[in-house]
Amino acid sequence: MTRSQIFVQRMMLHRMAVISACLLALLVLFTLSAPIIEMILNTDASKVNLFSRLMPFSFDHPLGTDDLGRDLMVRLAYGGRVSLLVGFTAAIFAAAIGTVIGLIAGYYGGWLDSLLMRATDSVIALPLLPLLIVLAVIDLEKIGLPADIANHNDIGLYRIIVIVSLVGWTSVARLVRGSVLALREQPYILAARSMGVPAKRIIFTHILPALTSPITVATTLSVGNIILFESILSFLGLGINPPTPSWGNMLTNAQELIWEAPTLAFFPGLLIFVTVLAFNFVGDGLQDALAPRSKKR
Question: Looking at the whole model, is its pTM more than 0.85?
């Protein structure tokens, strides 16, 4: 059997991971179909119509409308685009930062390893949510950004990605560093070093490919947490700024109408819950499928 066949066979043994992967695929399809849904329903996700506010389920509005008369299904689809984009992008950037730091610390060791790991421990020791809140309220103009960039409509999206990337790399860094410490003592690595192969080539040719599996698992597991952080910050009014929808700021807008229109909070909350849970199950399944010594569950 080929490697890919073994991976698929082992992945299929983890039923919850397979179900979760299917749910995530449907969610991604739902968000990518936002313009099509908007066209079919003949509506505009950003158009305010106070005469149609808080309408119940109907053929024209399958999930009803919000407090400004906007179609809830269409806004959930566009909001999912933002939330998933933040999750995937920030997770990839954080994994890249953590991988570089872990590779350098693990391979070179010594004072450089101690310095990088103490920096990692310092970031881990910081209270994450208060730190994110503080970073999210920084006035970008006062740190040197031009006014047109600092006041751009999408600056909240970029700010969240940068903030989460800068604080979310620690787990990947520690994981990579531990793996590199074990790999650098392997006979083929020692042989390459004794032959005078440059460190850069050893790292990128021999060590990094062996770390693909743990990095993939760690990145997948972090996506759900990042989506949760984005939702929390947006709920607090510090994340994605309206009128750009995200599941978090949709919850913010719905909190004052929780008794009058509970569906406005129920659907974005449900999508956040399902997405975070699904990513965790997929991460567990990948860990079982990619780990060579994991046992059948």
Answer: no
Burial of 148 (0-12, 13-18, 19+ CB in 10 A): exposed
Tally of CB atoms within 10 A around 285: 25
What stretches of the chain show up as alpha helix (H) in DSSP? 3-12, 15-32, 34-40, 72-108, 110-125, 128-136, 147-150, 155-167, 170-183, 187-194, 199-202, 212-235, 247-254, 263-290
Which one, of 34, 175, 141, 154, lies nearest residue 86 by Cα?
154
- How is residue 184 written in tokens? 């650098």
Q: What is the pLDDT of residues 140-178, one digit of tens each?
A: 777 777 777 767 667 777 888 888 888 888 888 998 998
Contacts of 273 (CB under 8 A, 6+ apart): none
Return the sign of the alpha-carbon dihedral for residues 69, 74, 77, 82.
negative
Residue indicated by tokens 């409308």: 65
Q: Where are the domains of the chain?
A: 3-38+69-95+128-169+211-290
CA atoms of 238 and 112, how far apart (whole Å): 36
Q: Please give the torsion angle defined by the CA atoms of residues 180, 182, 188 and 193, in that order, rounded to the nearest 10 degrees.
A: 60
80 CB-side CA count, 13 A: 28
Say what percent of the chain tops pLDDT 70. 95
Q: Do 152 and 77 meet the contact criterion of CB atoms below 8 Å apart?
A: no
Using one digit for the tens of pLDDT, what is the confidence trace for 3-44? 777 777 887 888 888 899 999 999 999 999 989 988 888 888
Among candidate residues 5, 2, 17, 6, the one with its CA nearest the CA of residue 297: 17
Q: Is-contact 183 189, C-beta < 8 A?
A: yes
